[in-house]
Amino acid sequence: MLTLLALVTLSQNGKFAIPCMVAPASRLIPEVGRKLGIKLIAGSSTKDDVLAISSPPRPAQDLLDGIATAANATWEKRPEGLVLVRSRRQAQDDEATEAKYRAQLIREALKSIPTDKAFDKNAAVALATYRREFKETIESDPRRSRELGPMNGRSPVGRFSRRLIEAMGPETLAALPVGQRTVFSDKPNRMQKPLPFKGIGPIIDQLRTEQARYVAELENHPAKPSPGQYASGFDYINEIPKTYGKVLISVVPRPQGPITIYVHFLDAQGVAQGSVVSHITFYPDARDLASFASPRVELSQLSLLRSKVYRTNAPVAERAPFQDLVARDPLSFVHTEALQTWSRHSSKAIFALLPDKGASGLTEPLTLNVYRNSLAWYSTIQESSNQIVVRPKEPASASRFRADRKLLTDYIRMCVREGQATLAAQQVLALATPVPEGLSSEQFLTLALPFRSRQHIDLLYLRLFALATPTQQSALRSGRAINFGALPPEARQTAHRLIFDQSLSDVMLLFGLQRGGAKDITDQFPNGIPNGAALAVRATSAEGALIRSAGSERFLDARALATLMRQPSNQCPTEFCFTVQNKIEIELSVFPNQTRIFTDETKGRKGSWGSYAALPEDFRARVQRATGGD
Known about the structure:
With 630 residues, the protein is an alpha+beta fold.
């Protein structure tokens, strides 16, 4: 292994060209080391980062410095080689950079909400009139969808949101955990945070006055909405109670998306008397970069195929080239060709840290200007005389929210092999994805279509079951319930997130909270997960038939198939396959009767495709009995 002194000598005497490489640091760093003749290693703090490098001949030290800058990390000399590590201080710097960026986005969003003029009768009439015009003519025109945001800003709820956020402080909101739910209260319990300011009463009084004025004008319009319906976009028509025992402010920041704020007014018993729902939408600060005579980015055949998969939901056979993601990272498509074109055109070395989200929709034909400007939506681009460094605007999230590449490879292979997402594949996906809320727009998942995941809460349910030990999973399948306290630590964290952070109250209880008569989950369980809370699973198998119609397949048991067979013959399917459907139903005892069902229709397949007569005789007899026949 070369010493640091030898490395300096090497950087003075030799230059090295690096063709564009895009891969997790655990693979990219050693490969760069082999090209330089140096033992390079990605440390545990950087190994999952997806890095990109594309460089004309440059000294080795310049290349190493560029990689470290892009990753915000440091090279440490250790006995095993040079190790790329991100110190605690550097990780904190990334957190601070991200919080500052998000706070700035919030401040910019608030500027679109005018509060300098009073919401008097004239303002209420103007907004009510505009809302009617919007509902009648504008709402159906997608080209004018962005008018909804400014209209909401003019509403009483929009004005209330600005006052509330300014009182809480944009920095407070920007520092909240992304994708999780944080509950503030003027009378907090153990599961809630104290309000970061005093004097919420006057802000609520102003909302009540303005909302009453607005509702009065809406009452005078023919298109008056019913109570509980949207008054303008996300502005609910709810009467704000004159007295209340407690206020809850529930904040849910979305990854690279809006901040949703729920304000609940509770009585002395903790039951909701009404609520306000507000969305603060902000857009990344993407200013067009200086244009130049932009060359076209020539995409590889695989990148072109990936673009087709993204656009057209291509069939399974066309996805087969993507199943080995260990050899080529999902982010390598498009980025590889674009960064190489950029480096060649500028004669500069490019070093980049790429998040799992962003630029997934870029398709052919693609020019370098289009690529650079799309990159600027979620990345900072620092250009000097000899190099370009690209870093995420949210660098902490880029490192934290990484999908497990190995598990995703297993998932796609299973899907391609089986033709759909089996139970086993769904469990792999649930384990591979740390932030299931953002799955629909993440680049790697487009390769797995049409095996796109269920909703994120379903994935968390499945993740909880998959994180149980093999012995516990076996016990659960046999009908035993497992107390949360007995689950492994990561499973307990997932259970906590399902109950509190992931805002199941917003899914299951929000309807009741908005209309009164329900408790927020943090008030319902003020001391955390209740004692005795348990995970239960019901596993069943049912014989039935897969039927194929209009290119899709679905499973029907004997009773459902009997119902279908009663239809006219021209409406009945012509292809059948006998199979066994395996099903698991997952339930948390804290939410009785709120279950998630996952099915697997291919693992138990026993037959081949054929006519109805090819189904087993005893199964056809059950179908006949279900139709009421002899």
